[in-house]
Amino acid sequence: MAEAKETPPIFEDCIFAIVISKEVTNNLAKELKTSLQDHGGEVVIVSNGSIDINEITHIISSTSDFPQYENARLQMLPVVTPSWVSSSLMRNKQSPIRPYTPDTRLFFSGVHLSCADIPTGDRDAITGAVLALGGMESSAVTRLTTHICALSLEHPKCQTALSKKLKCKIVLPHWFDDCLKLGKAIDSKPYEFPNPEIFEKKAHDNLPVPHSPSVEGATSPEPPGLLAPPALPSTRQLKVFEDRRVMLSNDLGLSPYLRQILESLVQGGKGSIVTSVHEADMYVCKYRDGRDYVFASRFGIDVGNLSWLYFLIANNEWTSPLKRLLHYPLPRDGIPGFKNFKITLSNYGGEARIYLENLVVAAGCEFTKSMKQDNTHLITARKNSEKCTAAEEWNINMVNHLWIEESYAKCQVQALTTSRYTHFPPRTNLGEVIGQTQFDLETLRTNYFPRDPTPRPEDPVVLRTLKNGQGSTEAGGNDDSDAMQVDKQPFAKPTPRRMPKTPAPTRTFAATTPSNRRSSTEKENDTPSSTSSRSAKDRAVSKLHELAPDIALYEKEKKRVGKGVWGGKRAADQIDRERKSKEPSKTPSDDEEEAEDSSEDEVPGPATKKVKTNAPKARPPIDIRLIITGYKRWLGSPNKEDLEKKRLRDMGILVISDTLTCTHMAAPAAVRTQKFLCALAAGPTIVSAEFVDKCLDDKEVPDVKDFLLRDKAFEEKNGNSITKVVQRARKNKRKLLHNVPVYCTADIGKGLPETYESIVKANGGLFSLYRGRGGMAIKPTNPEDDIGGGEPVYLITGLKPEERKLWPKFEEMVRAGNMEPRIVMAEWLLDTAMSQVLSWSDDYLTNK
Fold this sequence. Notes:
The protein has 848 residues and is of the alpha/beta class.
């Protein structure tokens, strides 16, 4: 009988580095070390953040905030939280890496999802998002399941979780939707069964202001008070400065006494104080300018402000100055575009409020504690307060804190139309996710320390580079000097990472590639990223040596004699052909952006090759951008709709929903729908719905003139054909209601204020909700109105008692502005938009 093959230890041939932090204490690190060694692993405990990534296979850390994280990520070295170890021991094999990453940008990390009674399309979308952002998904409910996405508790998966008392949360799909809209993971409690708050409570019910741990110690660029040695225990040793060379800039304005205190703390922690930035590892300054700042930034030296230095002293733990916005030096003149903004806050409290006040000032805005009509922006954590109501009435921009944070991080004003800046989950105070936005090093480089295109031989960077043998200005004179870390790494091929004696299947990184592995030049879309330039430089320098043989071969192939293309081009073409042959065909649900891909005809050269028969067919250019309303062919058949929209695109017709860019509109009649009236303001060619049927049935586009919409009922009522109305719209150029103030009561009907707002703005008017609050005023839209021009101001209203009470206040407000109040039914707006004529009749008045 053959002996059973002995199973190798779980962590055989694995070498771990455990990073000490607040969460991973020395005692926990020792316990992890024992467990890993008992199962075949080797362990190194790191207390000062210095990790030799060439000698290890895994990093265990509770945070991604350590110096070598970005370098490890670029080299696809797994970085996992301590829970990965316990999970692996429980499974008796190494667990997947993805759910245990400490990278906060992958905010679904740690989520192990199973969907219950969710429609197929929604389930696929939720699952895809979870997987892309660090989570895992399984069809069955297991002990590892952390979240069940369900619409009710009736599904067997939910019943199983409840009966077995599994430690998993049963949440509504709304939670995933709100997280994705914000790009942040908010608390799931308001979405959890058995009694989800978003259904049980109203949005305006009281909600406590949450604690904001991400801004602790980073609420201001200026430390709140002096730091004296008696405030620190005499037995405490600041390991964070060990072997570090620190330079304090003159622009900090430190008194001799405070400078002496800071220097003694650094030196007491086995660090040193230097007076030249060329010798520094850490550069502390106030502003993002000056020669020393540019040099330090280009050369990969850690650059932070005094608040960052205090944070290091208080916590005795290294953190990147790019992680917290107010730990990085200030822009001396603020961020371009913010100078004329006047901003106030609502629904933020404690340190979060102090942080936002200072961030607003740092961006170059004026901050006001109270809100008046001259405020330009309201930053709020919830869409529920007196300030929020007033902002809607006064047309003040209302956004959440992500707008000011990302504007500051990206060094430019972000568009208010971005949906995540105006999204407010009903039972969430967004103060819980404040302070999570980080700087992107590439953005800072572009705006504040772009590379010098003409480095001089006498430049300190060049001299330092030549001195350390890292190349010459002749060979790479245009290379960015900050691509090399000359003092920390000699220009030599690094020692290769130690590899296991026997390949371990569980360490096949390609099978568990985290979604955050990208090239160093790539940017993230939904969440800002921070990069470690020092580690990237080391990697770039070493790669030059590794690529040297390939470069030599490339140069040799270029010199090969012959008419055919040389090796690299030939190989690239072959790879490209194989890749294209494996690409899946486009689905019928191609979105509008894909449909608008460039379709310009290629100009054939003198030796044009014959096109292969299996090449994808090029789409024709877009001739018609079509809006369809009131069309019944696709009702209840979404698959048919997707398929036929694709067929229309293949004929040069793009079906869109944007009323601003349409060229044609198809409708069965002149209907007074929101889409029809908004699109009509653009003056599109209006055709009957039969035009769409004809295109799909005949598979070709007929003459549009043969299908122009005619509506006898419309012509009898308005005395004009639709064609003439379209001609008027084209002459109006969306200015039919230009500078005409139109108010609307909030209680006129559910969804109606939003509909009327879109129609008014589509025709160039000014729209506001009117609730009759005190303090409201109206200013004439033309300077002559101050003399008594009496321009009309409209209030669209219903006949409910609560609406009638507002009429006298509205009239008083308008007359106080020397203008004429007109309180009208909605018919006035609909008839005006439909006829494209701003005419008037007293028949529209409700109070005549």
